[in-house]
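Worked example

This section walks through a single chain of length 266. The input is the sequence exactly as stored; nothing has been trimmed or padded.
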Amino acid sequence: MSGQMIWHHRSPRARLALWAGWLALVALFVWCWEVMTQRTIWAFVWDAPRAASDIASRAWPPRWSYMEQLWLPLWDTLNIATLGTLIGTILAVPLAFLAASNTTPSKMIARPIALFVIVASRSINSVIWALLLVSILGPGLLAGIIAIAFRSVGFVGKLLYEAIEETDASQVEAVIATGATPAQVLHYGIWPQVLPGFIGISVFRWDINIRESTILGLVGAGGIGMNLQSSLNMLAWPQVLLIVIVILATVIVSEGISSRVRKALI
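Given that input, the structure is written out below as tokens.
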């Protein structure tokens, strides 16, 4: 019995590697904590509860009379999100067909280029797009609409080309067997399969864009964010609270619409 082998869940080398990994993780956490504490002014942190309480007391009650000045910026915000989503989804459709491995005309040239555009669009936040476009086009709605569109292209394009690649090949082969042209194969064999998902993706992106368009005004790209920025600069806390309430209500309504539409389609 003394020479019987005892089974272990991990080998000694695996246990050593696991402990080394945990040690490295703890060391990384300690290092990050050191960096954070060196750059933190703790006097402000300790004073944060009192400062938050002071701002809350100054902000309450919200200045409801300011609401009449928010209708137009709120409408602009909805237009930025809606038009940006529309332009982004229109641009994303051909891009997705070029990127999908089963529909691209060239896996060596067209597909890598399309994938690069999708990744580039998704890598840059809409606020950064807005900053660049405000510098080029000047402040206003146009910069916000294009920023939302640029950001939406990558999101919609990626989900759509993945949906195209997952289409049922037997339906496509059935259309090809009728002697259909490549355009007819796309129209009758692939597009009907991805259309419900495409509509759901577009509505979901519109919901996200409503939230993102509310902050684009902070960098001059129009919408209700510009009112928020000016109210913050003036320390008009009751106006800030009203704008936050309006933004929250808008996001809740848009999320409800998005959820109902996607449930009806998917």
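What to look for: Residues 9-41 form one domain.
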